[in-house]
Amino acid sequence: MRCSLTVSSKRRILCVFPAYTPSFGTFSHAYPLMGGVKAFMPPQGLLVIAAYMPETWECRFIDENIKATTPEEFAWADAVFVSGMHIQEGQIHDIRRRAHAAGKVAVLGGPSVSGAPEKYPDFDYLHCGEIGDATDRLIAILDESCARPAAQVVLETKDRLGLSDFPAPAYEAVPLKRYLIGSLQFSSGCPYRCEFCDIPQLYGRQPRLKSPEQLCSELDAIVSQPGHPAVVYFVDDNFIGNRKATRDMLPVLVEWQKKNNYPLQFACEATLNMAKQPEILELMRQANFMTVFVGIETPEADALKGIDKTHNAAVPMYEAIETLNSYGLEVTSGIILGLDSDTDKSEQNLIDFIDKSAIPVLTINLLQALPKTPLWDRLEREGRLVHDASLESNVLFTRPHDTVVSSWRRAIAHAYTPERLFERFKHQCETTYPHRIKTPAAGKVTFTNLRRGLILGFNIITRVGLFSDYRKPFWKAAGYALKRGQIEAVFNMGFVAHHLIRFTREALRGEHNASFYAAKAAEAEAALERGFWANARRRFIPEREAA
Ligand code: SF4
């Protein structure tokens, strides 16, 4: 639903989403292969805010991952709304600078300001927390006046809007065809309390839910846009945070797919104990889920105790991964190096895990303390928070910083050596892809999909299959997939590997930070200097990567 306040003024709201700093999970190197794709995923939060604005207020939406905001667009606006994560901090400040230079009031909401409002002293209004009473207060203030206040005003949501009252995100305000994948939210919050994670504090431990019917109408809106992405990612913090709700929702999703000839594939993030839920897994298979991101964090079972993530050990790790694979779900894994429990053996244990699990995509990051987490509080007590932009993390590790960073470098070099990466994809051809349901061609054979497939096929054959130095391992795995009729797998491994191999080489040259959550100062500056078009070509990550 929209805001129910009665407003007397007409306002023009310019929503601007900052460019992302590239990471393993952004797939930015894959976009040039994909004909017209410029960005990773539509930003749910700011699209919901745009949809919530009073009906008489005009909204424009700019995702600076796709295009830079022009001076004319700033001039058009009465107020500029910005949202983003910590990793976008530099870009958030830059949008604020441009808004102020145009004489506009600047408002900041979203996860970064909600976690650390002190980072943003120069914004006029801070909207902390989710959409709710603070949003209504903000609308009332702007209805009264869009002049910049004499001092910063902080508005904090005490009373959240229920997810069942959320308006559908303003998908119509963004060109969905420019995104690699679509986004959708079913629930918010997570019942667990992993030490390093800010989700429970920001979004609560009691997952709140949309109705399955809400989801279906949002899916209708997505597929009504020509050229929409073929994959939609559930941005829920933990897809099985409320198992009963997920179990009740999935049959509705299956029906929606059947009714529409399976136009979409799905992905989500969840905890590894999902392996204990065969009913949910089978329903996910029927709904055409392809990938699940799991925060495995560490292969060392004892280390899970230290970060309060013992729920990951509910099923033996390899058994759990095999179970997910047997339902056609390719696992993507988050890994953290630099935990207090790390020893001299941790690097080798991780390398063994990468090889044995055969998970193709792993986001391997150094531990980073986020505000509003138990980890932050503990490290602050222990005097182990370091604020040095030249370092790769704000954590004073128990092992020497350089040792941890060197481990990270060796681990990513091992994981993304082309031969090993394509070997892991080959393993998926055998263990995972054959378990997926066969969907009718009718839902997929559209002019846009054919065109996209031709462009992607041409680019993969030329750029990966002919001109790359990893063409041999690519063809070895591709040949294996083709023999099994897994053409989609060839496309998928081609563009994913292309990004991962190239991004790893850049990271090993020192061009990227070892922590996903904190852009190195130099990188943030470089992002600003590159200019927005150049940034839009680089790219990003899920808005709230957790689980
Ligand atoms: S890391 Fe995942 S499982 Fe742990 S609290 Fe965060 S969202 Fe929940």
From TrEMBL:
Superkingdom as given in the UniProt entry: Bacteria
Gene Ontology CC entries for this record: cytosol
Residue ranges constituting the Radical SAM core domain according to the UniProt record: 176-410
PROSITE patterns membership: RADICAL_SAM
Co-factor(s): [4Fe-4S] cluster
Keyword terms: Iron, Iron-sulfur, Metal-binding, S-adenosyl-L-methionine
Presence of the UniProt keyword Metal-binding in the record: yes
MF annotations from Gene Ontology: 4 iron, 4 sulfur cluster binding; catalytic activity; metal ion binding
InterPro entries: BchE-like, DUF4070, Elp3/MiaA/NifB-like_rSAM, HpnP-like, Methyltransferase_Class_B, rSAM, rSAM_horseshoe, rSAM_sf
Protein name as annotated: B12-binding domain-containing radical SAM protein
